Automatic annotation (TrEMBL):
Record's subcellular location: Cytoplasm
A GO BP entry: regulation of gene expression
Species name: Propithecus coquereli
GO cellular component: cytoplasm
Family to which the UniProt record says this protein belongs: Belongs to the KHDC1 family.
Chain ranges of the KH-like RNA-binding domain: 11-95
Protein's recorded name: Embryonal stem cell-specific gene 1 protein
Record-level Gene Ontology MF annotations: mRNA binding
Keyword Cytoplasm set for record: yes
Keyword annotations: Cytoplasm, Developmental protein, RNA-binding
Biological role: Involved in the maintenance of embryonic stem (ES) cell pluripotency. Dispensable for self-renewal of pluripotent ES cells and establishment of germ cells. Associates with specific target mRNAs.
InterPro entries: KH_dom_type_1_sf (IPR036612), MOEP19_KH-like (IPR031952)
Lineage of source species: Eukaryota, Metazoa, Chordata, Craniata, Vertebrata
Amino acid sequence: MGTLPERKDIPPWVKVPEDLKDPLVFQVQTRLLGAMFGPDGSRIPYIEQVSKAMLQLKALESSDLTEVVVYGSYLYKLRTKWMLQSMAEWHRQRQERGMLKLEEAMSTLQLGPWMK
């Protein structure tokens, strides 16, 4: 049995204590959190409401990963994990494409060796 979450504002759709006993845990790159959850996690309440789950984020020490802990019924946890991993992958690819476009633009400018 896992430890109970520290939150006091457990959403009404999460059944206490049965939905809190066995959380689903996965990791996301920390640099993607702002894009996924909004500034200061402002989108987390909406994501929780839509997914019918409860989320907790835990920064991992000396790592560029953040642990996402999902509480809820079994199916809602699986669906939430799939949704969040899909969002993370979409944002990761989007950032990667942005970097490629930036590299292309810089090579198009043909900066001299003194600028590189």
